[in-house]
Amino acid sequence: MDYTKYLAGRANWIKGSALADVMKKASELQKKGVKLISLAAGDPDPELIPRAVLGEIAKEVLEKEPKSVMYTPANGIPELREELAAFLKKYDHLEVSPENIVITIGGTGALDLLGRVLIDPGDVVITENPSYINTLLAFEQLGAKIEGVPVDNDGMRVDLLEEKIKELKAKGQKVKLIYTIPTGQNPMGVTMSMERRKALLEIASKYDLLIIEDTAYNFMRYEGGDIVPLKALDNEGRVIVAGTLSKVLGTGFRIGWIIAEGEILKKVLMQKQPIDFCAPAISQYIALEYLKRGYFEKYHLEGALLGYKEKRDIMLKALENHLPNAEFTKPIAGMFVMFFLPEGADGISFANELMEREGVVVVPGKPFYTDESGKNAIRLNFSRPSKEEIPIGIKKLAKLYKEKFGE
Amino acid sequence: MDYTKYLAGRANWIKGSALADVMKKASELQKKGVKLISLAAGDPDPELIPRAVLGEIAKEVLEKEPKSVMYTPANGIPELREELAAFLKKYDHLEVSPENIVITIGGTGALDLLGRVLIDPGDVVITENPSYINTLLAFEQLGAKIEGVPVDNDGMRVDLLEEKIKELKAKGQKVKLIYTIPTGQNPMGVTMSMERRKALLEIASKYDLLIIEDTAYNFMRYEGGDIVPLKALDNEGRVIVAGTLSKVLGTGFRIGWIIAEGEILKKVLMQKQPIDFCAPAISQYIALEYLKRGYFEKYHLEGALLGYKEKRDIMLKALENHLPNAEFTKPIAGMFVMFFLPEGADGISFANELMEREGVVVVPGKPFYTDESGKNAIRLNFSRPSKEEIPIGIKKLAKLYKEKFGE
């Protein structure tokens, strides 16, 4: 039966992820028994997450708390929203009322809910170029047109943002929204400077735009002192936060949140129950107990985070040793290093060759870009591979690099 | 700050649930310390769910399986899809390949994903009248126009369906889709007869329509022998299934599924990762172990289900005793009885008075209706209240009923 005629018009806006090919090939090789080193992941290390502790909590809450197997309120269990408000105050400079927090299906679910309330087909969303591929795809599914602003080591080139807005407005396009990951950006690994954060807020105010701040990596900071989220600098209510515990508890629990107010909060709340009912109760109770018992401090800040920092150091050192002249970012937060082949080189074919010849999986940068640039970029992840795998992977990458492009 | 101007046009289609008022009032009374008996729930009994067993599984998988804290494939972990295919074959007459199953955020998430792929603004969706309120709201958020077909004790009045389709087509409306809950319908509690199931499929074929079959209550069957889902009778591939383990494991795990094929499956898959990434890994592993270990038979068929049947019997007996002349449905599946006040009476004000005066919470039926009928309907739930609460609740309902309307 041909189902094409039944599809909604908006199904045309659904695009596949260009990363799927790489991942499919990797999985086929693994099925054949080929041993691969993966620098391609997008999540934290399950060996650094206190899984046994979470298991104990899960057992306890499932046994003792009937609500742990039931629907929760659509915006999340009140105790978790309260605990989260206290957590965000203590660890992320945010003074938020629990009433303004909506617990979502991970950060992904938060972004989709916001997109559905805010984006009309044809609306322009300005993002960093490159930006997180799933957000680009989710917003495109809603009919958004994505326009990117280049990124350097200090984050979005806010100096180019105003030009971009003017240019779009001159063309009669409707710009409503800026989406940014200021801290530990995916895929660049860079963190926006304080100066640019302030400038970004000023421009948003001048042009009356909303900002969606994706704080996914705010709890994966290794240095740079206290980094203040845009939301904490926002006096006008222009910043809506999409946050997540995925990088702390693990991505599989699907616990994220929206911080919003007014009509946006109201519409998000009304919209939510009919489309996902609530975030998983068991995950919400695990998150609640984890935060309440002070495990963020004990197992994350004094545990996992040190492990990620060590792995980042190992990756950067290996890159510096083997490829002292190559260009790559030096993250102070997050879990990615963006590595650049020489200008004009093709990251996709390099990634394929690296996997086939050397057994090292990396993610080409191109699909994260909003235009044709970034062809030579390769995203490297340091949170998931082991400390032993990272230098081997980088050495093999360097070998292929030198063979193709010289020192 | 006034956020109204930033809202997308589609935000106008987001409506609040008319049930929210009742629930809010109930929660306010409870906060004041008023003890209420609730016949208003929409989920199974957490005391009949083997929570300690699920807790043991959770502890085990979190400790031993690193993948239990990580992203899963967007369509779900392969082992669960395989186990589910075997489960559906054994307990629901379905021969489905694991490749055609997509694990979703509960049945709610399944319905929203399908709506997003299939419904264009202005498209007509035909449903039972009344039907599940969250589906009505979710589809309306996508711009659907809902048209209802009346329901009697044998389910959707399929004899009226064809007229309805002709009438809509004559008005130039685009009918694409029928949404039905054939077994243990919410809110009516009725089950579609085999004869009507066949007739429904014939009409869908004649008018080239798709059917979304919501199988939420297929594992809450108390009598009526083997009830065969539409999907198992479907030779043309017209039926898409939205299923869930919510009524077995508990609603809080958020494990549902879509069964689809061809372009619809392809678009659902492409769409899914950017908008929710995956169903919760921990819930997927709990579901996997629950099914694999034969716990469905042990704890559900030979456990919880007997409890729900007993509670159903208690509710029906109490209604028959106290209100022998009143009209109400007699469910052979699901968890609801629809109770009707005399023609012309107002269910919403009756529900309010019942809560305030007698401390019994029920859900007015009106919000489930697609038109102005059903003003006198009251939805009663028997799965959640205890065996002791049900006869007390019904007795109090009967007292108010008699006071207002006589015997």
UniProtKB/TrEMBL annotation, chains A, B:
<keyword id="KW-0479">Metal-binding</keyword>
<feature type="domain" description="Aminotransferase class I/classII large">
    <location>
        <begin position="35"/>
        <end position="396"/>
    </location>
</feature>
<keyword id="KW-0862">Zinc</keyword>
<dbReference type="InterPro" id="IPR015421">
    <property type="entry name" value="PyrdxlP-dep_Trfase_major"/>
</dbReference>
<dbReference type="InterPro" id="IPR004839">
    <property type="entry name" value="Aminotransferase_I/II_large"/>
</dbReference>
<comment type="subunit">
    <text>Homodimer.</text>
</comment>
<dbReference type="GO" id="GO:0008453">
    <property type="term" value="F:alanine-glyoxylate transaminase activity"/>
</dbReference>
<feature type="binding site">
    <location>
        <position position="140"/>
    </location>
    <ligand>
        <name>Zn(2+)</name>
    </ligand>
</feature>
<keyword id="KW-0663">Pyridoxal phosphate</keyword>
<dbReference type="GO" id="GO:1901605">
    <property type="term" value="P:alpha-amino acid metabolic process"/>
</dbReference>
<dbReference type="InterPro" id="IPR050859">
    <property type="entry name" value="Class-I_PLP-dep_aminotransf"/>
</dbReference>
<dbReference type="GO" id="GO:0030170">
    <property type="term" value="F:pyridoxal phosphate binding"/>
</dbReference>
<keyword id="KW-0808">Transferase</keyword>
<comment type="similarity">
    <text>Belongs to the class-I pyridoxal-phosphate-dependent aminotransferase family.</text>
</comment>
<dbReference type="InterPro" id="IPR015424">
    <property type="entry name" value="PyrdxlP-dep_Trfase"/>
</dbReference>
<feature type="coiled-coil region">
    <location>
        <begin position="151"/>
        <end position="178"/>
    </location>
</feature>
<keyword id="KW-0175">Coiled coil</keyword>
<keyword id="KW-0032">Aminotransferase</keyword>
<dbReference type="GO" id="GO:0046872">
    <property type="term" value="F:metal ion binding"/>
</dbReference>
<dbReference type="Pfam" id="PF00155">
    <property type="entry name" value="Aminotran_1_2"/>
</dbReference>
<dbReference type="InterPro" id="IPR015422">
    <property type="entry name" value="PyrdxlP-dep_Trfase_small"/>
</dbReference>
<protein>
    <submittedName>
        <fullName>Alanine glyoxylate transaminase</fullName>
        <ecNumber>2.6.1.44</ecNumber>
    </submittedName>
</protein>
